[in-house]
Amino acid sequence: MTAPTTSPAPGSDALALAGRVLLAAIFILAGANKATDPAGTIGYIQSVGLPLPEVAYGATVAVELIAGLALIAGYRTRIAALALAGFCLVSAAIFHNQLGDQTQFVMFFKNLAMAGGLLFVAAFGPGRYALGR
């Protein structure tokens, strides 16, 4: 037996675009902020003991900016959403794992929530207002 098909709700394409923009904004802002302070960001990466902090810095800035912009544009949306979801999960585990600290607790679960939203985008696509359609 196959599941019944349903048509999208009115306005769902506009909602999908708004959701993509809102999800992507934090990554673009964070990536731009990191790009303007490489020494500070590399120092923070070093503080948690990651190897090759300069490489991690470059990869982080690239993922946040490129995947964030792709998500807004709706270009290779599923790939961008999966990359950002993975980034959220990895950064939660590495940088926000001190759950006894209230701020880190909130940041950890914020990252999980963002990953959940991004997985929805990966599962259901960008909607009609997207370059990749």
TrEMBL record:
Record's keyword terms, sorted: Cell membrane, Membrane, Transmembrane, Transmembrane helix
Localisation: Cell membrane
Major localization class: membrane
UniProt key word Cell membrane: yes
Spans through the membrane: 14-35, 55-72, 79-99, 105-125
Mode of membrane association: Multi-pass membrane protein
InterPro entries named in the record: DoxX, DoxX-like_oxidoreductase
Organism superkingdom: Bacteria
Record-stated family: Belongs to the DoxX family.
Protein name: DoxX family protein
Source species: Parerythrobacter lacustris
